[in-house]
């Protein structure tokens, strides 16, 4: 589709050129705090306070890690491939297996944070795009999986299974918790199997919106244009230009103060596009989706207080 005419911070982006992105989005600091910069600590050296078992659910794998009260990873992370069809019981069993491995090593946790793809509202799965498929993302729907996932109160189910306080958010919102400063309108976009997003306004988490399923052009959604399947088809260079155009289309709708780009595929954005993005966005490490498991509790609590105060 043609670029929107009211998007004054952008120039028209020809198909064969790299875009200049919004000038009004200077980062609040030179680089986002990197969870990957902090060395993995040992249990003896962990910060005091509740330990959080963080679970990062992707379309291809489930990652888990134990975090201390400062959000530093204790010991190694674990990753289990997702085998489709994939039910809520399958997710619970993966978490249970990894939790048992922790306890065998002499560690335990006081609370559980889960980030998963899709629309989640107050711990209830309104819609999840991958786990309702027969053989993985973008394959045919599995009616049985659609019935058990959509509408499931996954937070209550996990809290009952593990007897721990449990928080379940969209995975991009967990990454946002590790990243945002609490100043201005901050947007996090994550690039992986599809597009993830979170919006935080002065430290208050906004109700989740699924940009990934919105139409972008020619009847295709954002996921269709900048998801993993399209990246593989186009190659990183052409895909990176697609990403830039997608960002261009979102800016007039949101007009963020700061934009963060993360997720596993953010690292694949080419240097040429990164140079054009310099000063406009902050790149964050993929590990934010895990390390945010601690600050997510504070972000949700602050958001609930702000709404209660009106």
Note down, in words, how this protein is organized.
This protein is of the alpha/beta class and 310 residues long. Helices cover 32% and strands 22% of the residues. It has 9 helices and 14 strands. It has helices at residues 88-104, 143-149, 154-162, 171-177, 222-226, 228-234, 236-254, 271-277, 288-308; strands spanning 52-57, 61-67, 73-81, 111-116, 119-121, 124-127, 166-170, 185-191, 195-201, 204-205, 215-217, 220-221, 258-262, 281-283. A 5-stranded mixed β-sheet has the order 3-2-1-4-7, sandwiched between helices. Strands 10-9-8-13-14 form a 5-stranded mixed β-sheet. Strand 1 (52-57) and strand 2 (61-67) form a beta hairpin. Helix 6 crosses helix 7 (236-254). The longest helix has 21 residues, at 288-308. It is globular and about 50 Å long. The N and C termini lie far apart (39 Å). The model is unreliable at 1-39 (pLDDT under 50).
Profile the largest sheet.
Answer: 5 strands, mixed
From the structure provided, what is the oligomeric state, counting identical versus distinct chains?
Answer: single chain
Instruction: Give the count of helical stretches.
Output: 9
Total E-strand runs: 14
Keywords:
disordered N terminus, 14 strands, five-stranded mixed sheet
């Amino acid at each position: 589709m043609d670029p929107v005419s009211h998007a004054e911070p952008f120039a028209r982006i020809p198909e064969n050129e790299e875009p200049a992105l919004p000038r009004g989005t200077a980062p609040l600091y030179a680089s986002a705090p990197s969870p990957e910069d902090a060395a993995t600590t040992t249990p003896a050296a962990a910060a005091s306070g509740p330990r959080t078992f963080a679970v990062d659910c992707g379309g291809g794998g489930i990652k888990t890690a134990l975090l201390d009260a400062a959000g530093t990873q204790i010991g190694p992370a674990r990753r289990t491939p997702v085998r489709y069809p994939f039910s809520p019981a399958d997710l619970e069993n993966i978490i249970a297996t990894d939790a048992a491995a922790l306890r065998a090593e002499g560690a335990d946790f006081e609370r559980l944070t889960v980030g998963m793809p899709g629309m989640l509202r107050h711990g209830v799965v309104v819609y999840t795009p991958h786990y309702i498929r027969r053989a993985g993302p973008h394959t045919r729907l599995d009616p049985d999986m659609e019935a058990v996932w959509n509408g499931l109160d996954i937070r209550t189910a996990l809290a009952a299974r593990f007897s721990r306080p449990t928080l379940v958010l969209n995975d991009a919102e967990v990454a946002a918790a590790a990243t945002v400063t609490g100043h201005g309108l901050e947007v996090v976009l994550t690039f992986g199997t599809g597009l993830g997003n979170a919006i935080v306004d002065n430290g208050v988490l906004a109700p989740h919106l699924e940009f990934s399923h919105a139409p972008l052009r020619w009847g295709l959604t954002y996921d269709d244009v900048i998801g993993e399947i399209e990246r593989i088809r186009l190659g990183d260079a052409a895909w990176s230009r697609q990403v830039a155009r997608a960002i261009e289309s979102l800016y007039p709708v949101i007009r963020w103060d700061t934009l963060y780009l993360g997720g596993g595929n953010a690292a694949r954005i080419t240097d040429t596009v990164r140079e054009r993005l310099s000063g406009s966005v902050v790149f964050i490490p993929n590990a934010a989706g895990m390390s945010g498991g601690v600050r997510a509790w504070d972000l949700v609590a602050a958001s609930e207080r702000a709404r209660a105060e009106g």
